[in-house]
């Protein structure tokens, strides 16, 4: 069985989660990209995008969950990520069913 441990820092995890959510509707639009780049460093974005693109959905979920545990994020930090995800979903002015489903799934992943 593959090990899904990462050595990510908090910014890398945040970038990966935002990318994961941006692709809830299978497309990262310019509004979403701009919002992500306003939250995380451009180099971190590029690095995490390469890793994200190489992973399948199962790997993505495992990496997110394992990294949250490894980094010991507080409830306040997890809530902040959820707020940023909602900003991401609303960036293009359309909060569709796929994004609503992702909101529900993300809350499950981020539960402490």
Low-confidence stretches: none
- End-to-end Cα distance, whole Å, is 25 Å
What proportion strand? Answer: under 5%
Mean pLDDT: 93
Q: How many discrete domains?
A: 1
Can you give the helix content as a percent range? over 70%
User: How many alpha or pi helices?
Assistant: 6
Radius of gyration: 13 Å
> What's the multimeric state?
single chain
Question: Which descriptor suits the 3D outline?
Answer: globular
What's the short version?
This protein is mainly alpha-helical and 112 residues long. 72% of the residues lie in helices and 0% in strands.
SSE topology:
Elements: H1 10-22, H2 30-39, H3 42-54, H4 57-71, H5 75-90, H6 97-110
Helix pairs in contact: 1-2, 1-3, 1-4, 1-5, 2-5, 5-6
Report on this structure.
The chain has 112 residues and is an all-alpha fold. It has one domain (10-110). Helices cover 72% and strands 0% of the residues. It contains 6 helices and no strands. It has helices spanning 10-22, 30-39, 42-54, 57-71, 75-90, 97-110. The radius of gyration is 13 Å and the shape is globular. The model has no long low-confidence stretch (mean pLDDT 93).
